[in-house]
Design a protein that fits this description.
This protein has 125 residues and is α+β, with helices and mostly antiparallel strands. It has one domain: Bit1 (3-Layer(aba) Sandwich), CATH 3.40.1490. The protein is built from 4 helices and 4 strands; from the N terminus they run βααβαββα. The chain has a 4-stranded mixed sheet, with helices on both faces.
Length: 125
């Protein structure tokens, strides 16, 4: 009997939203959408096979909170160090925030176990 050595992975994307900015719920949703779309596009461009595995799976997405810009930038750096595709989102400044305010971070998609190393300690929105 031959045992299979292939492992099935779960994939996910994480959107991290700054809660210190006190954005309205609608603004937070829009910033999370920007983070999801941009991070998906980065992954599709940089690692199409990884993107396909996520897209053809359950396309899991999780929305988490960051308490400050510093925390968001630290997460971005951690993702970069682990070579996980990511995208920082800066607001255009047309509604609630000054132009260029960093509001969110999209991370992945990538293997859930890698994502958890970066964001496993964060709380859900």
């Amino acid at each position: 009997m031959k045992l299979s050595s292939s492992k099935t992975y779960e994939y996910k994307m994480v959107m991290v939203i700054r809660t210190d900015l006190k954005m309205s719920k609608g603004k937070m949703i829009v910033q999370a959408c920007h983070a999801a779309v941009e991070s998906s596009e980065v992954t599709k461009r940089e690692n199409r096979e990884l993107w396909k595995k996520w897209k053809n799976g359950n396309s899991k997405k999780v929305a988490l909170r960051a308490e400050s810009l510093e925390e968001l930038l630290e997460l971005h750096n951690n993702a970069f160090q682990l070579k996980v595709p990511c995208a920082l989102i800066k607001d255009a400044g047309l509604t609630e925030l000054p132009p260029g305010t960093t509001t969110a971070l999209g991370i992945g998609p990538d293997k859930a176990e890698i994502m958890d190393k970066i964001t496993g300690h964060l709380q859900l929105i």
